TrEMBL record:
InterPro entries: Dimeric_a/b-barrel, DUF1428. It comes from the Bacteria. This is RNA signal recognition particle.
């Protein structure tokens, strides 16, 4: 089984194309470092919940869209090594300086698949 790293972030709607370009650039780095799949999904039907929801999780503002993303790696070890390498990669540092969203409100985590149909 693979290992999955998921992200949720709020992106200003006006920054959709800038975000897409940013994600495309990041995908190349993630794949170079071991990711086998990189998926970015622009929110289309993200309802408000009664207790919690995606928008609340990232403190999305009225002019922001929730983006749900995930990466697949062959293993947790490869994902951990990729994240370590990214922290010192100058390309990642350059991308971090020009993020088209507020990275402080991004949520993320690593997940072990238990069903994959």
């Amino acid at each position: 089984m693979s290992y999955v790293e998921g992200f949720v972030v709020a992106v200003p709607a006006a920054n959709k194309e800038a975000y897409r370009k940013h994600a495309e650039q990041a995908s190349q780095l993630f794949k170079e470092l071991g990711a086998t799949r990189f998926v970015e999904c622009w929110g289309d039907d993200v309802p408000e919940g009664k207790i919690t929801d995606f928008r609340g999780a990232v403190n999305a503002k009225d002019d922001e869209v929730v983006v749900f993303s995930w990466l697949e790696y062959p293993s947790k070890e490869i994902r951990d090594a990729a994240n370590q390498k990214m922290m010192s990669d100058p390309r990642m540092k350059a991308m971090a300086e020009e993020m088209p969203f507020d990275g402080k409100r991004m949520i993320f985590g690593g997940f072990v698949p238990i069903v994959d149909v």
